[in-house]
Amino acid sequence: MKVVIALSLLLAAATALPTEFSDIFPIGGRIVGGNTAARGQFPYQVGLSLSKDGKSFWCGGSLISDQWVLTAAHCTKGVTKAVVWLGVNKVNTLSVEAGGKKMTVTNTNDIITHADYNDKTLLNDIALIKLPSKVALSNYIQTIALPARATTYSSYAGDAVVASGWGRTSDAAAGITNTLQFVDLKVLDQTACAKPYKKGLVQPSNICVVTQGGHSTCQGDSGGPIVTRQGAKVLVGVTSFGSASGCEKNIPAVFTRTTSYLPWIKQITGLNV
Fold first, then answer.
1. What are phi and psi of 267, to 5 degrees?
2. Which of 114, 148, 168, 246 meets the CB 3.0–4.6 Å disulfide criterion with 218?
3. 61 with 129: CB under 8 angstroms?
């Protein structure tokens, strides 16, 4: 699944982001160069059908507790309703797979965009959604661990990670896919990640992955997870942005680094992170 990151983000020559989410996140697409996930393979993966100004678009998210979803701020800003899909591989507007669940959030106070989110640079591109009630955990619905508290955190450079989502599967795709995809990736050193982008765009609060060989995230994957492959599974990033030139151009994909926002997550949710 080439995760063509949900925002057609700026390369060095680009100066601004599109303003209409509906132009960026068509409901339909998938990860580029990836594989179809088995049912229950990514039980923490959440699908989000979001509404803003009478238009709908698609993002991903991660279940971090039985009532909280972590996603991207560029997905939630200005959103008035979120339909949350849990425990599903296939997204079908008419039905939910057995063992899956669909919950609707209409209280805008429960759709929390980081107060310092900058929609021009995507700084602080992180958000939380509170479910209307606690969801029962099962084989298909599970939480994903956040990094344990530490004085210093690993950069994760060189580590194997996996991204998942329903985003576009190629730059030519008309929309997202209805079947969950995943792709194995490797975390890239921050300096190398920053080179293709406008100076200052990639910040220490970002984490990047190598996207060689047409393997990446793409539009529709925004807000979704990257999770460590080695040892315990840990949510280390939230899909944020990629190159405006396309998802198949071997340009690093950029995520929000979760270790940079653990105090904010604790403040909002009360979780012991």
1. -60, -45
2. 168
3. yes
Under DSSP, the state recorded for 147 is P
Separation of alpha carbons 251 and 225, rounded Å: 19
Pairing assessment for the beta strands 81-86 and 45-52 based on DSSP bridges: antiparallel
3-state secondary structure of 112: strand
pLDDT reported for residue 231: 80
Residue 215 annotated in active site = no
Q: Is 236 helix (H, G, I), strand (E, B) or coil?
A: strand
pLDDT band, very low/low/confident/very high, at 91 (cuts 50, 70, 90): confident
Q: Is 116 a catalytic residue?
A: no
Residue 35, strand partner residues: 182
Whether the CA torsion 231, 35, 166, 220 is positive or negative: it is positive
Residues 6+ apart with CB under 8 A from 100: 85, 86, 87, 88, 140, 141
Check residue 90 and give left, alpha or beta (phi > 0: left; psi -120 to 50: alpha): beta
- Neighbour tally for 137: CB within 10 Å: 15
Set 49, 62, 222, 243: catalytic member: 222
Structure token digits, residue 55:
């238009």
pLDDT category at 65 given cuts 50, 70, 90 is: very high
Catalytic residue (choose from 114, 125, 164, 216): 125
pLDDT per position as a tens digit, 120-157: 899 999 999 999 999 999 999 999 999 987 767 889 99
- Closest by Cα among 20, 76, 33 to 246: 33
State the Cα–Cα distance between residues 71 and 239, nearest whole angstrom: 8
Asked whether the beta carbons of 262 and 58 are under 8 A apart, the reply is no
Among residues 49, 62, 65, 74, the one annotated as catalytic is: 74
Neighbour-count burial for 111-134, b at 16+ CB within 10 Å, e otherwise: bbbbeebebebbbbbbbbbbbeee
